[in-house]
Each structure stands twice: as C-alpha cells, then as structure tokens.
Design goal:
Blueprint (H helix, E strand, L loop, with lengths): L2 H18 L3 E3 L20 E5 L18 E5 L5 H5 L9 E3 L20 E3 L20 E3 L20 E3 L20 E3 L20 E3 L20 E3 L20 E3 L20 E3 L20 E3 L11 H7 L5 E3 L7 H12 L5
Amino acid sequence: MNHSDAYLEIDKQIKYALETGAQHLNLSSYEITELPESLGQLTHLTSLSILNDSIRVFPSTIWQLKNLTKLDIKCRLLYGEVYDSLYKLDKLTHLNISRNDLKSLPESLGRLVNLTDLDISYNQLVQLPESLALLTNLKVLKVYSNRLQSLPKSFGKLVNLTTLDANYNQLKSLPISFWQLSNLENLDISANRFKALNKSLGQLKNLTSLEVSENQLSALPESLVQLEKLTILSLSSNPLNNLPEELAQLINLTHLEVSDNQLIHLPKSLGKLVNLMSLRASGNQLTNLPDSLKQLANLTFLDVSYNKLKILPNELRSLLLGLNRFSFYISGNKFDKESKLLLEELRKNNICE
C-alpha cells in the first residue's frame, strides 16, 4: 500500500469510528509519516495503538482524547510536545512507550495517577524520575532492556506493584524502600550487576517468581527461604558454587533453574521439594546426583547435561520409568558402563536425550 492509499484508508477508519462510536483504534499497520488532525475528533476512544516507526508528526489534537485508558505508542520520535504532554491523558491505566529510544522520562509522568500498567522497556533510560513514586496504583512495571544504574529512592511507595521486570539493565543494588513492596509477586532482575542479594529479600512475602540469572552472585541470603510462596526460582549463570540445604524449605517450588554456575553438588535435601516439576542444572561441575531425587514424583523435566557426572543413581530408574511424560537431558557427561546401560534403557523408552 503506497502512502496516498494509506492516508485514504486511515481517513476511512477515522470516519467509520466517528459514525459507529468505536472505542478501539489501531493505526499500526500503515506506513505514514504523520497522523491527521481529525484523529482528535474521536473523543470516545478508550484504546489507541500507534506502533509505527515512520511517523514524524503527531497532531496536537491527540490530547483531546480524554477518555483514553490504553495507549501504545512506538514511533522513535517521542519527544518534545508529544513526549511532555502525555500527562494530559489523565484517564490512562495502560501506557506502552517501549522501543522509542527514550533517554529520559518527564517528571510529569507522575501525574498519570490512574496507571496500573506501564511499559518503558527497550529504551535508553539511565534513570527513572522520582515522580514515578506518585503512581501508587501501578501494578505492572516493565523497564527491561534499558541502561538503568539505580531505581528511585522512593520506589517503595509503589505499594500496589505486583510485577517488576527490570532485566538487562546495569543495576547493582535496590533502594532501601524497595523491601516495602509487600504485594510484589514477580521480580525479574536478571542480567544486571548484582554481586549479592539484600538480606531484606525475605520481607517480600508474596513473591511467587524470582529471577536473578546472569548476575555475579556468589552466595544466597539466608532470608531467601522465607519466601514461602515462591514457585519459580531462576539462579542460572552466576558464580554460585553451593546451594544451601535450607533451600528445601521452599516447598512450593515448581521450577528451579541453576544452570551455568559452578556447583559441585546439589543439596541432599532436594527431594523435599515435592512440587518440583522442572530442574535445570546443566553446565555445572556436578559429579553426582542426590539419591533424594527419586522422591520428586512430580518432576517432568530434568537437565543435567554438560557436567562431570559418571554415575546415575539406580534409584532414578524407578522414578524415570514410572513417569509417562519426562524429559531428561544428560549429554556432555562421561558415564560409567553401568550407567550407560541404564541410559540405553531410558532412551528406548523415549525418556532421555
């Protein structure tokens, strides 16, 4: 579709939306360089999506869309009046301004007090405005793939936050107020620069998912085992050489990822994680597997490839053969003759790879 056809089609869409009172409009599929002024007539719109890198001009009339609750903008030219005037859409609950090459956010962002979901990922942000703390209704915040070196000191005022995705940044620590986020359920700070996790981590009692892969963690805080609701724990790609036996207190864990560390062994108490369904421990220095693995009756995925295993416990045989659906990855190890016979039996049953 050429430019002239695209503009005609957009005019048709706007006219149709005016006539029908449509509440949703998506202008993402048209290669145009500017949006028509007539867009501002659609004051009944509640949802607008403009994911278009070719747009160079935004009409000032867009701020007349006072009933918008959801706005997705991707144009890589989100600055100036467009950028600073977002606060005028004060009914917004969902705002997505990811992938816009933004280097900063205006303090006026804090005036969007009805926001519950904010996506500012894939930009070039080095810091977040302190006014972010005014968004006390915020539940989901996505800031991944930026250049953040810290979070605002007042971050803990986001008392309703349930999900923070801050992976692929340059964070080394979290502000003291962070541990006040008692409603936080999902925390992803993978691919940052953490050398340690704060001992206050245990205060986040409602955490169900914690992802801290690709950091520089050499040890885990004792308070980790206080996260009794945790179902997902990802610790991959850290220099960890030991997992505490107390980890078995996290009895609600269903997924545990510890691949690409420096682990010599797994905790003997691992078998107490009776709800565990997936265990990824590839790329370590494991020389054996604990006998207690046989107690993991709900396990359906086990990856211990590329370790230093020579022996497979016979106790695993009854567990593996007794499960209808099981994925077992063991390549990159040098097993003894007896273990190879067991592996051959497992392969015949389509269990191991």
